[in-house]
Amino acid sequence: MEASNTTTESVYPLKPSDDERLMAVLIYVTSFFTTIILPLIIWLVKRDDSRFIDVTGKNYINFILSYTIWSAIGLLLVLVLVGLIILPIISLLVFIFHIVAIVKAYHGEDYLPPLSIRFFS
């Protein structure tokens, strides 16, 4: 009887190629210029070519939607003055998690930033 190997096996059967990693990095890097349009175009064009790019694109969209919701909540809280503290923190987290996601994508790792809601799986 053969034991199943379900320990630390990656989501991806093979290590992502350099081109796949480049496209995943571009999803995050282009978001500094256009938050949704360019990353969405890259994801929609390349998602059928690579599972890694598909998962990275979904993670990015989940990340942006989640932090848009958190920012909207922060804006509402500005009315109660609590948002004056929360909005800068959210902005800083978005920047930091963008950089971390770029590095993770470059190394071929799946990364969904903390506090992200998984709208697409």
Automatic annotation (TrEMBL):
It comes from the Bacteria. The chain crosses the membrane at residues 22-45, 60-79, 85-106. InterPro entries: MamF_MmsF. The keyword Transmembrane helix applies. The keyword Isomerase does not apply. It is found in: Membrane. It is a multi-pass membrane protein. Pfam families: MamF_MmsF. Keywords: Membrane, Transmembrane, Transmembrane helix. This is DUF4870 domain-containing protein. The lineage of its organism: Bacteria, Bacillati, Bacillota, Bacilli, Bacillales.
